[in-house]
Amino acid sequence: MTELPYRRNVGAVLFNAEGLVLIARRNDVATEAWQLPQGGLDEGEDPRVAVLRELAEEIGTGRAEIIGEVEDWLNYDLPAELLGKALRGRFRGQTQKWFALRFTGRDEDIRLDLDPHPEFDAWRWARLEELPEIVVAFRRPVYARLAQEFARFAAR
Prior knowledge:
- Residues 5-148 form the Nudix hydrolase domain.
- One of its GO terms (molecular function) is hydrolase activity.
- By secondary structure, the chain is α+β, with helices and mostly antiparallel strands.
- The protein has one domain: Nucleoside Triphosphate Pyrophosphohydrolase (Alpha-Beta Complex).
- The chain is 17% helix and 31% strand.
- It is globular and about 45 Å long.
């Protein structure tokens, strides 16, 4: 496992005007798996540009402005049963640059149906502190860190 590299990735914690965050349900796993929008970083791509591109690709809108950033890159490792399967079998996990963003659109702007092969089949607004309990276990440490780092933007 340690011989495989981490995939470089950006992630978005998208806050609405009430301080809730957008989470989306993956449509490619058997169990309910909720997560924040995230996606691969192209070679040479600026992470701040990439996070807005990923939002547009994954949730159908880039109507957002960056309001915060985790200084560090956060890593997670895939569990043993997903190694060689998830992430096309080429990575041990992901190293992620996370951003907090303020949603500047309306709920109607969020369109999961625009991609011919959507990653998500549902979305909802959630409280930031809920995130570590909602996501799959191997992502919990990263989501707990996000809840701590971005608490200042969240609903009270």
